[in-house]
Amino acid sequence: NNRDDSVFSTTLIKGDNLIIEYNEPPNSEKAVIELSTVVYGFKDMFGILSGYGQSGSCNVNINCPDGANWQKEKRAVVMVMTAKNTALCSGTLLNNTRYDAKPYLLTANHCMDGQDPETWIFIFNYESTDCTNRDGSLKQTIQGAFKRSNFYASDFALLELSSVPPVSYNAYYAGWDNTTNSKDTCFIIHHPMGDIKKISFTKDKLGSSDFSSYIPNSHWEVKKWVFGTTEVGSSGGALFDANHKVIGQLHGGYADCNTYEKDYFGKLSFSWNYDKDAKNSLK
User: Fold this and answer.
1) Closest by Cα among 218, 222, 229 to 204
2) pLDDT tens per residue, range 131-168
3) CB-based contacts of 69: which residues, under 8 Å, 6+ apart?
């Protein structure tokens, strides 16, 4: 974890006492270690991340039969711990046209909320082993990322993880479609309420909306979910079309397990090059 930018953060550690151990190689320069922030959870974040009933009861585990055809794509989806481990979002690894496994990750711009993602924690493969609610492991993590581009209107943020996921994580780099054609039969794989990985599905033709951007056609509108829903923590989760390609990421909406309400995803096609400035463009 000795990165070039000299920044390090840990994931959640249970207990009231910490020991920080530093091993200095022989003949190395004298180290300077500064503890900039200590976050103490007076509420049990491990309970929030337990995976047992924190998300709505209508949500479907990714390893249920409904997720059987999405076993490759699920490996691209990660849980994102932001704001010094106090907030949660979802993100998705994206492939690029060089096919060089550069670890680009798509999430929501509002998850950043003025933060620098260099101290975020990205958790891979947090899921039940089967269709039942069995807690998963939080041990497969990468610490930190660099912002490559983002734009408020479609609420996208493209990050580059600080390191390539280890082979043991079995990570997948999702494909994407930047055309403007409307879709039907779409899916989201996500971590609602920081829960174990879930999948939701809609079969209605997507609408087009400005949502809160006031820019026409900047968002896909999901009229209702056939199964599952989205919740806090789902933000940034990728919307996949029937061809298993990413076409947007969750911005917001009104869906829950009790009502058939709409959700809104920033369009990948809009994010691609609506703003010609490279730092605001997904392209």
Assistant:
1) 222
2) 988 888 888 999 999 999 999 999 999 999 999 999 99
3) none
pLDDT at 22 over 60: yes
Q: Residue-wise over 183-196: b if at least 16 C-beta within 10 A, else e?
A: beebbbbbbbbbbb
The CA distances from residue 9 to 38, 112, 144, 260, 268, in Å, are: 10, 17, 8, 40, 31
Closest CA to 253 of 271, 227, 238, 235: 235
Q: What is the predicted pLDDT for the residue at 157?
A: 97
Give the pLDDT of residue 45: 64
C-beta atoms surrounding 164 within 10 Å:
13
Residue with tokens 């046209």: 97
- What is the pTM assigned to this prediction? 0.89
Residue 65's contacts (CB-CB under 8 Å, 6 or more residues apart) are 131
If we measure between CA atoms, which residue out of 217, 92, 211 comes closest to residue 158? 92
Query: Residue 238's beta-bridge partner residues?
Result: 249
Token output for 8: 């390090």
Instruction: Report the half-sphere exposure of 258 (CA within 13 A, side-chain side).
Output: 1
Rounded Cα distance, 235 and 238, in Å: 9
Q: Can you tell me whether residue 67 is helix, strand or coil?
A: helix
| Residue 165 tokens, joined | 């996921």
Write out the DSSP string of 114-125: T--GGG-EEEE-
The better pLDDT of the pair 46, 274 is held by: 274
| C-alpha to C-alpha distances, 42 to 86, 88, 258, nearest whole angstrom | 11, 17, 31
Site of tokens 């840990």: 10
